[in-house]
Automatic annotation (TrEMBL):
EC number(s) reported in the record: 2.8.3.5
Keyword line: Transferase
Name of the gene this protein is made from: scoB
InterPro entries: 3-oxoacid_CoA-transf_B, CoA_trans_fam_I, CoA_transf_AS, NagB/RpiA_transferase-like
Family: Belongs to the 3-oxoacid CoA-transferase subunit B family.
Native organism: Serratia ficaria
GO MF entry, a single one: succinyl-CoA:3-oxo-acid CoA-transferase activity
Keyword hit for Transferase: yes
SUPFAM superfamilies (UniProt xref): NagB/RpiA/CoA transferase-like
Gene3D superfamilies reported in the protein's UniProt record: Glutaconate Coenzyme A-transferase (3.40.1080.10)
Protein name: Probable succinyl-CoA:3-ketoacid-coenzyme A transferase subunit B
Claim: Magnesium is one of the keywords in the record: no
Length: 217
């Protein structure tokens, strides 16, 4: 299975020169460490930072420079800091080229549940609802199954939705999949992971092409 770092490294392969990219809380924040050398990408955080850099070393640490998850970050040359109202105007206006989000569940209709588990205290949805509504190119990054072994790729989400019909790409610790015509389509498998294991851990309808490539790093 892929580690959190490997998952972030695979997502970074989807970046393109000149992209404006929003990184959600959790695994997505690690993508900042794997931007390909020489590629000009502006990473955006909804709390008001455009031009987020890699996580800081001890010498670079600035407690006032944080991302939306309250992690300390760095700012690259050319970065801009502004209020969250302007940040959300950028998101809602469709000016983000790629959004990377975590999730609890995704289903075959492209629905995503990422903000609430009934019975557990949550602080709120944050910017996720705006991100799924304002972005056309979204990659969800999450584990394929829960800690209890239950699939998180479902026929229908069971948790409260963050957005409906908005997800087309999912990267898990086992596979990279696309959502098409009411099904997950297996495009790549993680190194050392069999197609059979992916099938067994996917509850939603899954289409397996004749050939499934192994991810390259």
């Amino acid at each position: 299975m892929l580690t959190r770092e490997r998952m972030a490294q695979r997502v970074a392969q989807e970046l393109q020169d000149g992209y404006y990219v929003n990184l959600g809380i959790g695994i997505p924040t690690l993508v900042a460490n794997y931007v390909p050398p020489g590629m000009d990408v502006m990473l955006q955080s909804e709390n008001g930072l455009l031009g987020m850099g890699e996580f800081p070393t001890e010498q670079q640490l600035d407690a006032d420079m944080i991302n939306a998850g309250k992690q300390t970050v760095t700012a690259r040359v050319g970065a801009s800091i502004f209020d969250s109202a302007q940040s959300f105007a950028m998101i809602r206006g469709g000016h983000v080229d790629l959004t990377v989000l975590g999730a609890f569940e995704v289903d075959v209709e492209g629905n995503i549940a990422s903000w609430m588990i009934p019975g557990k205290m949550v602080k709120g949805m944050g910017g996720a609802m705006d991100l799924v509504a304002g972005a056309e190119n979204i990659i969800v990054v999450m584990t394929h199954a829960s800690k209890g072994g239950g699939s998180k790729l479902l026929p229908r989400c069971t948790l409260p939705l963050t957005g409906a019909g908005c997800i087309r790409k999912v990267l898990t610790d086992l596979a990279y999949l696309e959502i098409e015509d009411g099904a997950f389509v297996l495009r790549e498998r993680a190194p050392g992971v069999s197609v059979e294991e992916i099938v067994a851990k996917t509850a939603g309808r899954l289409i397996v092409p004749p050939t499934v490539a192994e991810m390259r790093f």
